[in-house]
Amino acid sequence: MIRILSYIGLLVGILILTLLIFWQGFSEIFGLLFKSGFSLLLLPVVWLPSLIIAVISWYQLFPNKLIPPFKELLLALWVGRAINTLLPVATIGGEIAKARLLILWGRPVANVSASVLVDKTVQAIALIPWAIIGTALLIYLAINNKLAMLLMLGTLLLGIGIAGFIFFQRAGLFSFFAKMVGKFNTSDNWAEITLKASDVDGLVKEIYGNKKRFIISILWRTLGLILQTSEVWLACYLLGHPISLIEALMLKSLTSIITDLAFIIPNGYGVQEGGYLMLGILVGLTPEFSLALSLATRVRELVIDIPGLLYWQHVEVKYLRKKT
Description:
By secondary structure, this protein is an all-alpha fold.
């Protein structure tokens, strides 16, 4: 069901994106992009530190003696991000791929599964301070207080949803689903699967029990989001309309939140562009410039994410050859 919704979301997103581009003027938007030329390739470079920081954040969610090498975490995170960005997987498929890669590289299944589940929670929690930062700057710039109120309400609802998700994780989410499926599964090895699910639940509780490392993980994730502001600030500079760091931080924060909330639309196609269009006007950007800005930040998908998918295929093909 989620997969079908993701495909529908992909079609809707691409349609919205196409309509926005032609509505604001294809030649004007791409004229701005081509004018900047190869300098836009600097954008993925300034974005890369946020990927490194995401690895450091995930690093905190493993037991000290079982932390995978930094290189493995980086490669798994790179692939997972590429899958979540470019494929219609509702931001879940990438997490599964992250876990699978580490398991293929010989890391304990239960520890990997627990860390990936909590890491997804950390990603969601980091959106709360990220949204608060953007909303606070919107109020500080005295741009649109009504919009700020709506964003505050949305952040509150997001926090309630995350709290509920954590509650179910601590209550034994994996075991619950394993038992539910077990009622309809007559396989002889399902009892073993249920026991492994219990192990994962136990490790999830251990991760949450280490509050210091859990909070540090959230702080690192939030810092990574903040550093992504450099991408927007530099893109505006390269496109010929410099803005302040505060304005760039507000734009990046709120467009990211809008895009993440519309997770059913892969890569936020159309949603991200609509966010930049709506918020860009508030800081004096023309609609066509806002759309060009959004498309410029997508250069990262060509330079970083597509190679990530290719590397994933390389690993999977190599594994299949070993099996045969």
